[in-house]
Amino acid sequence: MKLETLLLEKRSNIVTHWLDLIFETYPPDAQRFFKSRADRFDNPVGRTITEETEKLFDQLLRGDEAGLENISPALENIIRIRATQDFTPSQAIGFIFLLKRSIREVLKKEMDHKDILEDRLRFESRIDDLALTAFDIYMKYREKLYEIKADQAKKQVSGLLRQKGLICEVPEWRPIS
C-alpha cells in the first residue's frame, strides 16, 4: 500500500489530530476557546488556523510540482498569526513538525510496513521544506513588526522632545532667487 493512499484515507483523522496538537501549543484557556468556537468572526484565529491547516495538508499531499509557491498563502496566514503571538521562533514554526507526529500516531500500525518507508521519507522531506519556508516567512513578519515598533518609538521620542521644547522643526530651506 502506498503512503499517499493511507494519508487520503485517514485525512480527516490526521488533520484533526494535527489541529489538536497545534492548539495544545497555546495556553489552556486559548485552547478551549479555539476548539469551541467555529464562527469566523467570533474566533478568527482558531478559524484561520483550522482552514489553513487543512489546505496545507492537502497541498503537501498533492506534492505540488510548482513548489512551495502554492503553499505559501496558507502558510503565510498561519505564520502571520503566530509571528505576532508570544512564541519563540522555534515554537512559532514548530507546528509544522507536529504533522509528522500526527501521521505517525494516526498511522501507527501502517507505518511499520517496509513498502511505505520511501514514500514516508519523501513526504517528511516535504514537511521539512515547508518548515524552512515557514521560517523565512516568520522572519519577514518579525522584521516588519520590529520596524513598526521602531517607528512608533521614534515618533514618541520626537513628540516628547518637541513637547518639552528640546527640538523644533527646521523650516524647509529654499535658495533665495
Q: Tell me the series of helices and strands, N- to C-terminal.
A: HHHHHHHH
Cα gyration radius (Å): 23 Å
On the 0 to 100 scale, the average pLDDT is: 86
**Strand percentage:** under 5%
The geometry reads as: elongated
How would you explain this protein's 3D organization?
By secondary structure, the protein is mainly alpha-helical. The chain has one domain (3-163). The protein has eight helices and no strands. α2 (11-23) crosses α7 (98-106).
Q: Helices, strands, pairings?
A:
Layout: H1 3-9, H2 11-23, H3 28-36, H4 44-62, H5 72-84, H6 89-93, H7 98-106, H8 117-163
List its salient traits.
mainly alpha; elongated; 177 residues
Question: Quick gist of this model?
Answer:
With 177 residues, the protein is mostly helical. It has helices at residues 3-9, 11-23, 28-36, 44-62, 72-84, 89-93, 98-106, 117-163.
